Amino acid sequence: MPLAVRVIRAEHDALAAMLRTVPLLLDAHRRAGTPPDFGALRAMLFYVDEFPERLHHKKESELLFPKLRARAPELRDTLDDLEADHAQGERAIRELQHTLLAWEQMGESRREKFEQQLKVYSARYLRHMKREETEILPHAARCFSVEDWAVLDEAFGSHQDPLAPRAGQAVDEAYAPLRQRILAALPAPFGWGPALAA
To answer: What's the rounded Cα separation, in Å, for the pair 69 and 160?
Structure first.
């Protein structure tokens, strides 16, 4: 399997695990009557903005998708949809960050809006990643040349996602505190912090 595909899938898996876990974490805090760790939530949203939105999507939009457009014209509508997701993703994560700040500063009256936005954002993102894995990557596997994969492998292998480190590679020191903050806040098995009682 090409390195680019392994990187894409690993980054998808890490993000999906986080997106699925955060609502469970918020629900556990609600049931326990305790406030969430807003600092950890801010770190998680910063991670989504910093890596999937700005790095991962950019490489898909600038390298993977154009190659597929040239070799698999039947995917035009799918690629258009995925590009539209990328275009609105950065705005959506900023809105989510703002709504989280509003909840933190204004109190419980803003909680429901954040949770609803998070639900919509997560569902859209999970659907987007599934389409890439079930519709885009299989087509790429069939029609890309060795040279195509070499270009993609170099591009996707050039960065290190702090939540999806590759075997034998250390997380960039600058992002180690971010990784630690996020993983410590998430319950097992994703994080290493203590899980909240269900």
So the answer is: 27
pLDDT digits (tens, 9 = 90+) for 143-189: 999 999 999 999 998 888 888 877 777 777 888 888 888 888 876 65
In this structure, how many other beta carbons lie within 10 angstroms of the beta carbon of residue 141?
12
Question: Would you give the end-to-end CA distance of the chain in angstroms?
Answer: 39
**Whole-angstrom distance, CA of residue 33 vs CA of residue 197:** 12
Q: Rounded to an integer, what distance in angstroms lies between the CA atom of residue 189 and that of residue 79? A: 34
SS3 content of the chain, % helix, strand, coil (to 5): 80, 0, 20
Helix (H, G, I), strand (E, B) or coil at 146: helix
- Show the domains of the chain with their CATH numbers: 3-164+171-185 (1.20.120.520)
Place of tokens 């986080």: 18
What predicted TM-score, i.e. pTM, was given to this entire model?
Answer: 0.87
pLDDT in tens, 107-121: 999 999 999 999 999
Q: Write the DSSP symbol of residue 132.
A: I
CA–CA separation, 140 vs 75, rounded Å? 11
Distances (CA, A) of 103 to 24, 114, 124, 185: 18, 7, 22, 18
